[in-house]
Amino acid sequence: MKDPFKTRKMHTVPLAAHPEPPHPEPRPQATPASADPGKAGGKLESGRAAVVPEALASLPAIPPSGRIRPSVIPLAPPSSDSTWTTGETTSDRTTDPMMSVAPCSGAKDRATLTILSGINAGQVFALDGTEHIIGRGTEADLWLEDGGVSRRHARITCRTDGRYVVDDLGSTNGTFIGSERIETREVRPNDRIQLGPHVTLRFAITDDAEEELQRRLYESSTRDGLTRLYNRKYFSERLTAEVAYSRRHKVKLSALLLDLDDFKQINDTHGHSAGDMVLRLVSAQMQRLLRVEDLVARYGGEEFVVLARSTGKTEAVRLAERIRESIAGLDITVAAHRSLRVTLSIGVAALPDVAPEGGPNELLALADARLYKAKAEGKNRVVAEGGESA
After folding, report:
1. Closest of 270, 239, 272, 269 to residue 256, by C-alpha
2. Paired sense of beta strands 199-206 and 192-195, if any
3. CA separation for the pair 373, 249 (Å, rounded)
4. Is 9 helix (H, G, I), strand (E, B) or coil?
5. Tens place of pLDDT per residue across the chain (390 aa)
6. Helical axes 232-249 vs 208-222, angle rounded to 10°
7. What is the per-residue pLDDT for 365?
8. Which of 92, 144, 333, 362 has a C-alpha 20 to 30 A away from that of 102?
9. Quick check: helix, strand or coil at residue 126?
10. What's residue 139's pLDDT?
11. Residue 363: enclosing H or E segment and its boundaries?
């Protein structure tokens, strides 16, 4: 019997070396005009005398550089110039005396791997141990979600002398450094490690500050700023991959679309700060009820979406009811001696509910149709049937 979870054999094209970009050619200097058209008697290129309107004659002359100083004809207030509000000039303001502390020169001793391509592009892994297994299996230390990566694809090891070595563990689609397929190779800072046809990692030695910056950049690109849930862009990318994976390996998958009931009334009655508090607390409560492998994201406004892996419709309905009941019992304090409660309407769709040729858009559309049905039937309920197009 064919193993449905076997890594797909693919054609892997190694990365091509990127040539140095050519130095830009110096631009030729602009040839000055034969005569200044702003002066009486100046000649244009056509040979006719320039006609200067009286309104323009009173303006100050333009400097030879061709640029107008902001002090002559201001176009817009610079962001750091307070003269637009205080009336002070730059010479009137002085620098505040402060104690300067020399920055610490942190040693670059943190080895990291940054994903450069694939669903989780930008994610940073810190190599804190002496040995790390890279793959898509549950036993991998560095888990990569890609069908072209083997369960135990490669291993990266730190030797006693501080050098790092990459070993291919008999992967189906190979491990490459640069354009060369390798079995065992020492990896150096800024080397690119390609695992199969799709995933590329960059090896680097950084300090704590650089590693933290990389993590923050990744978080800001994938997380919603208010709720700290995943954002819609990241969810859409993951949804496409999860549906393809479930179709290929015959694995269960369900989507839950959730909407806070009468949220506009909360904003109108208690203010937008109270609305923000509700969104944050509801998001935190949902995260407590989900598994690590489940994905929850803010879909827009007061809408949320949950992607439940290895979950059929029956289990998804139970999960939806558990979330609905938990949120309904949440006592949210929005001001001193004032609290409120909120409810959720939820639409549930499992992948088998969608036609065999249906994809991520059809799965989400079905969940949305069932959410709309839950709203129409009175809100604060879960709907997992109906909504299919004829």
Report:
1. 239
2. antiparallel
3. 31
4. coil
5. 555 556 667 777 776 655 555 555 555 555 554 445 444 444 444 444 445 555 555 555 555 555 545 544 455 555 555 555 555 565 666 666 776 665 555 566 789 999 998 777 888 888 887 899 999 887 888 888 888 899 999 999 999 888 999 999 999 999 999 889 999 999 999 999 999 998 999 999 988 787 788 788 878 888 899 999 999 998 998 898 889 888 888 999 999 999 999 999 999 999 999 999 999 999 999 999 999 889 999 999 999 999 999 999 999 999 999 999 999 999 998 877 788 999 999 999 999 999 888 899 999 999 999 999 999 999 999 999 987 654
6. 80
7. 95
8. 92
9. strand
10. 84
11. helix 360-376
| Helix-, strand-, coil-residue percentages of the chain, each rounded to 5 | 25, 25, 50
For 98, list phi and psi in degrees, rounded to 5.
-140, 155
Are the C-beta atoms of 49 and 43 separated by less than 8 Å? yes
Among candidate residues 124, 141, 149, 265, the one with its CA nearest the CA of residue 206: 124
Is-contact 329 322, C-beta < 8 A?
Answer: no
Residue (of 255, 274, 263) closest to 379 by Cα position: 263
At 341, list the tokens: 């409660």
* Phi-psi group of 193: left, alpha or beta (phi > 0 → left; psi -120 to 50 → alpha; rest → beta): beta
Residue with tokens 């999860």: 242
Can you read off the two tokens belonging to residue 162? 């501080």
Q: Give the length of the chain.
A: 390
Task: Measure the CA dihedral 313/315/321/324, to 10°.
Answer: -90
Residues annotated catalytic, as ranges:
302
Q: Tally Cβ neighbours within 10 Å of residue 295.
A: 20
Residue written as token pair 């800001």: 220
| Contacts of 82 by beta carbon, 8 Å cutoff, 6+ apart | 88, 93
The span from the CA of 253 to the CA of 247, in Å, is: 9
Helix (H, G, I), strand (E, B) or coil at 387: coil
CB-hemisphere CA count at 13 Å for 146? Answer: 27
Nearest of 295, 309, 317, 302 to residue 236 by alpha carbon: 295
Tracing tokens 């509801």 back to the chain, one arrives at 282
Question: How far from 156 is each of 37, 145, 181, CA to CA, in Å?
Answer: 70, 18, 15
Structural element, H or E, at residue 383: strand 382-383
